[in-house]
């Protein structure tokens, strides 16, 4: 696990402005920020499935059959029902109803469902995307890398920001022959999470290849890091020796 910690410190005036929320006595205000970088171990894949037929019912039936085959095949990737989130079926009319000559043209209907699948083994991302495209998934809209320790890491980076705010406040106060007193205010300003990598895959990408196999995701893509960030503002009393 890589760790990056950045601290920004500001020593405010001894007497605050009347309209400031800071205390009127001597004080020190610090902002501590921390960032933890980790390698992902999970992935969330968003994709769309659709079927096009001349009648709405036929399009819906064809979509149901396609989805059933697709879902049954997810078992080989150890994906359970709890790992799949699916939208309701949406029916859209495609094409045109008539042409400029006034003659009726054949219209079609598209039945569409969107799925979000969580893969608990990141090593199988390429296998899963290849499987989805072989099952006539029209587009893989996004791949997001995740960590199974999300809550633990978010709590860890917050504690690091708090700890470093304390350390830096002590160091700065000591530089002015002062000591840090009691805490006046604590405010968490930012908790960010960045998956570090996302992509969209369509059949066009696959068609550009020289064979029927979807190109494997590059090894350096799989090494993408997830960033957990936290920022906290703390105001301490400042004890100055006379």
Structural account:
- The strands form two sheets. Strands 3, 4, 5, 6, 7 and 9 form a six-stranded antiparallel sheet that branches. Strands 1-2-10-8 form a four-stranded antiparallel sheet, with helices on one face.
- It is built from five helices and ten strands, in the order E-E-E-H-E-E-E-H-E-H-E-E-H-H-E.
- It is an alpha+beta fold.
Distance between the termini: 46 Å
**Poorly predicted runs:** 1-20, 199-223
Count of DSSP helices? 5
- N-to-C SSE series? EEEHEEEHEHEEHHE
Proportion of helical residues: 25-40%
Total strands? 10
CA-based gyration radius: 28 Å
Would you kindly provide a brief summary of this structure?
By secondary structure, this protein is of the alpha+beta class.
Question: What descriptive keywords fit this protein?
Answer:
5 helices, four-stranded antiparallel beta sheet, elongated, alpha+beta
Ordered list of secondary-structure elements with their pairings:
Blueprint: E1 2-10, E2 27-38, E3 42-53, H1 56-73, E4 84-86, E5 90-94, E6 108-119, H2 125-134, E7 139-146, H3 150-175, E8 178-194, E9 201-202, H4 203-207, H5 219-222, E10 226-240
């Amino acid at each position: 696990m890589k760790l990056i910690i950045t601290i920004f410190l500001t020593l405010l005036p001894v007497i605050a402005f009347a309209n400031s929320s800071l205390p009127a006595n001597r004080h020190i205000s610090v902002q501590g920020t921390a960032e933890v970088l980790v390698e992902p171990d999970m992935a969330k894949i968003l994709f769309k499935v659709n079927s096009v037929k001349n009648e709405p019912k036929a399009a819906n039936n064809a979509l149901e059959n396609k989805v059933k085959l697709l879902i049954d095949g997810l078992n080989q990737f150890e994906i359970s029902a709890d790992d799949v989130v699916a939208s309701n079926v949406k029916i859209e009319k495609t094409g045109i109803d008539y042409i400029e000559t006034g003659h009726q043209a054949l219209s079609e209907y598209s039945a569409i469902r969107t799925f979000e699948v969580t893969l608990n083994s990141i090593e199988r991302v390429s296998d899963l995307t290849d499987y989805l495209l072989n099952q006539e998934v029209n587009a893989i809209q996004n791949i997001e890398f995740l960590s199974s320790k999300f809550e633990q890491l978010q709590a860890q980076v917050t504690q690091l920001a708090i700890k470093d705010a304390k350390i830096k406040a002590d160091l700065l106060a000591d530089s002015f022959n002062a000591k840090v007193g009691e805490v006046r205010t604590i405010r968490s300003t930012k908790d960010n999470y960045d998956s570090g990598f996302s992509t969209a895959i369509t059949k066009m990408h696959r068609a550009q290849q020289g064979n029927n196999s979807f190109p494997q995701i590059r090894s350096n893509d799989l090494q993408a890091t997830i960033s957990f960030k936290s920022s906290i503002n703390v105001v301490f009393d400042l004890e100055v020796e006379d």
